[in-house]
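$ ./design --mode recover --in tokens.txt
reading tokens...
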């Protein structure tokens, strides 16, 4: 049985037993699951008549690999129409950087390319890199650093 199946079974056990927290250890492998209340997600619409923030054109952007920050005003915090949701493929702890004290992989307003690392999800002491599937600008980062996320929870919004 793989780790994802174990986690799913433990989550089912938590639901059936109405548990808020569950800790299980199998030899060297430990699981800690904590139930959080679902928080409603609301997004503020920009005021009518608000002009979009200017961004650097591709020809004036520096030619380097990796993240390229865009003007901070471009990161509105709300997904734009047509934005792509990057969802958690597994249950794990969300980390924005490769190590404590390191620079985050991306910030709101960062321009990303397909395959670029956005974050790490730690599950069962395994570090799983989550990468961008599309090119665009990160407009919203959902979870806080160190927060437990569930399968299909939106981690990032990327606007074209």
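writing sequence...
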């Amino acid at each position: 049985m793989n780790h994802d199946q174990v986690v799913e079974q433990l989550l089912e056990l938590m639901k059936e037993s109405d548990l808020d927290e569950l800790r299980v250890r199998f030899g060297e492998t430990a699981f800690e699951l904590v139930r959080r209340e679902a928080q409603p997600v609301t997004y503020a619409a920009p005021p009518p008549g608000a002009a979009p923030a200017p961004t650097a054109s591709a020809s004036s952007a520096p030619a380097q690999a990796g993240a390229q920050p865009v003007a901070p005003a471009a990161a509105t915090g709300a997904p734009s129409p047509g934005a792509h949701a990057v969802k958690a493929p597994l249950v794990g702890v969300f980390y924005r950087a490769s190590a404590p004290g390191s620079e985050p992989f991306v910030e709101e307003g960062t321009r990303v390319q397909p395959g670029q690392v956005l974050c790490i999800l730690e599950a069962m002491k395994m570090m799983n890199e989550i990468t961008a599937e599309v090119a665009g600008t990160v407009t919203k980062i959902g979870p806080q650093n160190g927060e437990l996320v569930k399968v299909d929870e939106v981690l990032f919004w990327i606007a074209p």
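exit 0
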